[in-house]
Inverse folding.
């Protein structure tokens, strides 16, 4: 009989190269623990880690509910690790009506900031605060954003475990040269095309910067994709701005490796892993001046930032980086790397989760 701790990890995403619950939270510790990975979406076609057990829903809340009821009735889990508010609510309902004792074994990772939640998701979060045993915020900024009465009344439930990035994935990218056009100054924006990421402001700033060899690439999809495409066409910028859509994680890293500058104009984040990955891929970064971005280089202030409400300031900063001497760029990249590889390693993050799994 195995003496390993049994962990049920539940996420909306199926196992794939872009799934953090799979790649960062599960695979690296799959030999230490008995991990069952359960996804809302059906399993994909990728080769799965052989150390884990897999279950998947059919892409519906009802389908996942039935699956979770079956699992908690027939299996014995020591920890249930939840990665999404919708998923957490489904599990809470399954446990309440079938095996309430399972709620004492729950851990929820809060991957964003409270101010970014919709009204519905704030209700869901309140339910999680009541029923979930432990809530791990992904950064100090994420924790600070949480509605203060929750932290006062349920103080013992909350902890902060700063996100780490998977350097092994970064290392799997070959050492490529800069962009498709070596003479270009390539800027890349990575993430969902949603209002909170302010993609239109980035386009406006890029246009105003009027860089002689500037290129801008958006990596990711979302509800604003068609509108953003039309906006770029209206401005006649189709030759210098591209939307490549959602691509595999390795390809995201490839774009970062090619780019001269990574730009985030986001209004809010949890702990922005994409920024850390961009730095690890040798890319300078330019970030909106929000708490999660300030937290990255807290005490050092080595990353250029701009007022997220000021498109002219973003444009000005783009020009500054474009004109920055190569020696200054190399010095900044050296400081960036020293920061992320020591402060934001995946190992540091996982060690803290392991302590929770083992009840320490």
């Amino acid at each position: 009989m195995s003496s390993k701790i049994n962990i049920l990890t539940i996420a909306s995403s199926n196992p794939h190269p872009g799934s953090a619950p799979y790649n960062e939270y599960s695979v690296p510790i799959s030999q230490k623990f008995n991990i069952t990975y359960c996804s809302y979406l059906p399993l994909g076609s990728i080769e799965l880690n052989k150390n884990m057990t897999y279950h998947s829903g059919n892409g519906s809340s009802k389908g996942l509910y039935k699956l979770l009821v079956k699992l908690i009735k027939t299996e014995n889990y020591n920890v249930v690790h939840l990665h999404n508010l919708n998923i957490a609510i489904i599990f809470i309902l399954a446990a309440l009506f079938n095996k309430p004792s399972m709620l004492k074994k729950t851990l929820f990772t809060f991957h964003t900031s409270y101010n970014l939640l919709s009204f519905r998701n704030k209700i869901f979060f309140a339910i999680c605060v009541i029923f979930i045993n432990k809530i791990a915020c992904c950064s100090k900024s994420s924790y600070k954003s949480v509605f203060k009465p929750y932290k006062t009344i349920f103080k013992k439930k909350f902890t902060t475990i700063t996100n780490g990035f998977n350097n092994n994935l970064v290392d799997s990218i070959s050492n490529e040269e800069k962009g498709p056009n070596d003479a270009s100054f390539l800027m890349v924006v990575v993430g969902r095309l949603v209002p909170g990421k302010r993609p239109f402001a980035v386009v406006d700033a890029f246009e105003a910067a009027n860089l002689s060899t500037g290129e801008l690439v958006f990596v990711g999809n979302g509800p604003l994709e068609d509108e953003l495409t039309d906006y770029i066409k209206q401005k006649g910028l189709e030759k210098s701005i591209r939307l490549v859509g959602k691509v595999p994680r390795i390809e995201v890293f490839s774009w970062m490796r090619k780019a001269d500058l990574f730009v985030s104009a986001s209004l809010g984040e949890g702990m922005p892993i994409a920024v850390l990955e961009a730095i690890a891929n040798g890319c300078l970064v330019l970030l909106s001046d929000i708490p999660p971005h300030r937290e990255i280089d807290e005490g050092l202030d080595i990353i250029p930032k701009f007022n997220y409400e000021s498109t002219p300031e973003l444009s000005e900063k783009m020009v500054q980086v474009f004109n920055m001497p190569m020696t200054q760029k190399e010095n900044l990249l050296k400081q960036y790397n020293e920061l992320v590889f020591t402060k934001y390693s995946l190992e540091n993050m996982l060690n803290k989760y392991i302590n929770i799994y083992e009840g320490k």
